[in-house]
Amino acid sequence: MTTHAKSPEDVPAEPTAKRLPSAVVARLTVYLRALNGFVAEGVERVSSEELADASGVSSATLRKDLSQLGSYGTRGVGYEVENLLQHLSAALGLTRDWRVAIVGAGNLGRALARYGGFETRGFEVVALLDTDPQIIGNEVGWLRVADAANLESIFKRTRANMAVLALPGSAAQQACDRVVAAGVRSILSFAPAILQVPRGVTLRKVDMATELQILAYHAQRGEAGGQTGEDEHGEPAAGTASA
């Protein structure tokens, strides 16, 4: 019987408690999306080069990222797609039951509530809240807009453990404080404001105007003959090719 040397090419290890750099975590989500694509196509095994190509990174970057999870396998055989997908999902915390409440039922909040991609990636939107009497009670998809005055009881009833703030900047901090007081420790904010949260709460901010300004900066560099495939940490960005 022939034995093969192990290399960081294949089967992933158990999720690690090691804190990964944000750029690595971002790329792991891209690898997961690529793996889901392979599953949909009925592919059972892929090489590091094939997975890297589908993810828009170099195979060296891919192997380095997976090695941080303690991923090892058989050189030259490739990754077992389902197995790697399951372990990446576990490493990213996607095997947990994530129940999302959206605070703010304006145009953005309603669009997020209707987005079907959340459920396919392991996130169930369980509540949509607002303070506007003209919006409260309206149906958005399968949800009915609830009164944000009852935020705490709604979060308890729906067992929401993740919140999205789709609010004006002026209302965001107060809503954020109430969400934290309700026991939620994972918050995604679209509000154009700097929010303060206590230790132990993870806050991610999406500011589309800021992102456009960053794009304008890079576009200007590109026009001057430069190109960028880096994220905010100076590492190869997920979805961009690296040398």
UniProtKB/TrEMBL annotation:
Residues 93-194 form the CoA-binding domain. It is found in: Cytoplasm. Its main location: cytoplasm. Residues 30-69 bind DNA. Pfam families: CoA_binding, Put_DNA-bind_N. The keyword NAD applies. Keywords: Cytoplasm, DNA-binding, NAD, Repressor, Transcription, Transcription regulation. Gene3D superfamilies: NAD(P)-binding Rossmann-like Domain, Winged helix-like DNA-binding domain superfamily/Winged helix DNA-binding domain. HAMAP family: Rex (MF_01131). Belongs to the transcriptional regulatory Rex family. Modulates transcription in response to changes in cellular NADH/NAD(+) redox state. Homodimer. This is Redox-sensing transcriptional repressor Rex. It comes from Sinomonas terricola. The gene is rex.
